[in-house]
Rhomboid family intramembrane serine protease
Amino acid sequence: MDQAPGSPDRPQAAHGLPGCYRHPGRETGISCTRCERPICPECMVSASVGFQCPECVRTGSGTGHAPSASRPRTIAGAEVTGGDPRLVTKILLGVNAAVFLAVLADRTLADQLNLIALAFDPRLRDVVGVADGEWYRLLTSVFLHQQIWHIAFNMLGLWWLGGPLEAALGRVRYLALYLLSGLAGSTLVYLLAEPNQGALGASGAIWGLLGATAVLLRRLDYDLRPVIALLALNLLFTFTMPGISWEAHVGGLVGGTVIAFGMVHAPRERRTLVQAGVCALVLLAAVVAIVLRTQSLLT
């Protein structure tokens, strides 16, 4: 895309907002506090005041002694690392694909890994499910798909939403967001769905990423209308199309939104502690709900 005449450092994006100086096609309303070049979430580095571009962080813009220059961090406080910015996203894609291929090779794996609260399996002549002690199903089901369209749709969402979030949050925080969102979705399914109703898929985790994207864009003062429209459209499909576990979608959305809010709005002085505390609270809420539901099913 052509840059604005006379402004080589401020490329113009399609809808009027400036484009990132490193990624001209990405609209952004954030500029480096030192050189004022526009920067997107992947390029921005958290500083004592505002955000800086990678070049100013690397050179220190003449000061070189600021803590932010020696330890560049993302908007969520994670240290900026080199290498592939989508490493965790690619690993998650690989795990989902590997489980999908394993299920194609052995269809019985789906029955062993899907989310089911409590049911009698005639083939095993035994009771199976989370309430019977198979708690691992709450997470294994998040990586489980049986139809090609199902995994394709979810992995497209993971690739589209995951990369920017991984760059903005950092690898560890991003992985925690994904796994806890998936667990939150599974927990709501376990609480509200029929005990013998099976559920599977990464939808809960993907909806968590969608909620986190809305929180991040709001934090960066971006236009939220496209994300709101996408949320509304997906909610419409969730509640009108048969065979969709709305509990997983809503649970993942709520969990991901809460976690992301805690990550990007945590105070700088106690940022890591607050972020860990928010994740722990979401995990604790899920565990308490699971235990109570299990007791109700077994009594």
Remarks:
- The CA atoms of residues 235 and 241 lie 10 Å apart.
- Residues 87-298 form a domain with the Rhomboid-like fold fold (CATH 1.20.1540.10).
- The first helix runs from residue 54 to 59.
- The mean pLDDT is 86.
